[in-house]
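Before the break, one more example. Copy the sequence into your notebook; we will annotate it together after we see the structure.
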Amino acid sequence: MVTYNQFTLENMAVNIIKKYDSTLINGVPRAIPIENIMEQHGLNIEYQYIRNNGRILGVFLSDGGVTGIYDKTVKQYGLVRFEEKTVIIDGTLADDKNNGGRIRFTLGHEFAHYVLDKNTQAGVAVAHIENCDCRAERAVDYLSSALLMPMGQVKKCFYGLRSTNRNEDALISRMAQIFDVSKQAMKIRLAGHNLI
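Here is what the structure looks like once it is written out:
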């Protein structure tokens, strides 16, 4: 397994974003259009109920194929065929209008699987459900954070808002709104770079 350090993951994220639209890195801090970036890379996004308990939020199927999906109307699992390069986001996230940040992070997480897996396992179908490698998942989560909250833009936003937002919670909340992420994700990103 290839391991990635944070510097490499940050650079990967910046390069992906620049390739899509360099103003997202050099302009005014704003939400990264993760769905559009994924579509540019040829990924299909589907919303389905993956499990009956909502414990699996997303799956990436590099080679497509048939996988089990929960059908809420008949309350049982069925097999569904998906195209290659499909990201499945659990429908329970979409059921709650307050989950926008969680949906975007899950999209970023599954896109990060695509980016990292294509570098190490070309042609291998990867559905990240079982046999979790915690180190690999940490790298995927980090890349998702770097994609949704590029550090240069986060710092620009942080220092621009800090003078008018002395309250840490208010600052985190405002930055989460700007980047369209959850407050928890923004707090983790800021803390990870010693900004709070």
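The chain has one domain: 6-192. Residues 29 and 157 are 6 Å apart (CA to CA). Try to locate both features in your own notes.
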